[in-house]
Amino acid sequence: MPTLALNKYALHDYTVLEKLSAGIVLSGPEVKSIRGGHINLKGSYITVHNGEVFLTNAHIGQYKQAGTHQNLDAYRSRKLLLQKKEIARLVGKLKEKGLTAVPLTIYTSRSRIKVDIAVARGKQQFEKRELLKKRAIDREIRTTLKRF
Questions:
Q1: What is the C-alpha to C-alpha distance for residues 49 and 28, in angstroms, rounded to an integer?
Q2: Among 3, 41, 78, 86, which residue is least crowded by beta carbons within 10 Å?
Q3: Predicted local distance difference test score (pLDDT) of residue 85
Q4: Where are the domains of the chain?
Q5: What does the alpha-carbon distance between residue 79 and residue 52 come to, in Å, rounded to a whole number?
Q6: Which of these, 48, 57, 54, 61, lies nearest to 75 by C-alpha position?
Q7: Which CATH architecture has domain 3-123?
Q8: How big is the chain by its Cα radius of gyration, in Å?
Q9: Which residues pair with 119 in a beta bridge?
Q10: Which residues are CB-neighbours of 47 under 8 A, at least 6 positions away?
Q11: pLDDT tens per residue, range 76-123
Q12: pLDDT given for residue 70 in this prediction
């Protein structure tokens, strides 16, 4: 399961409560572009319209060797493939106050490209600072223990 893209900002800005895995509907040049590493998940999010789930605002760069015959928008919404029960559960979670859905990683599973979706709660600024302080203290403890 090689990871093709990671959304580091999502882990910094949100507390992950639940994870889902979904397939993505892509065109041929988009698949080759993603496999080449030309994808950015920064600022992307998950939306639900008419019982369908979409990955919105993810940047997939144009595949250079494809030519100009298929000139797709790099930021267009892409449909995600989930079962009806998973979609209903996701919609129920998103109706709760303060919860949102964000993509975490894009990876390959066999020959398919999939995305991990997180149902998450936004962190406050003081929570982010506390986490950074805790990591610094833990790092300092580890280095002092290595010396002795």
A1: 24
A2: 3
A3: 93
A4: 3-123
A5: 7
A6: 57
A7: Beta Barrel (2.40)
A8: 18
A9: 18, 101
A10: 53, 54, 56, 77
A11: 888 999 999 999 999 998 888 888 899 999 998 888 899 999 998 888
A12: 64
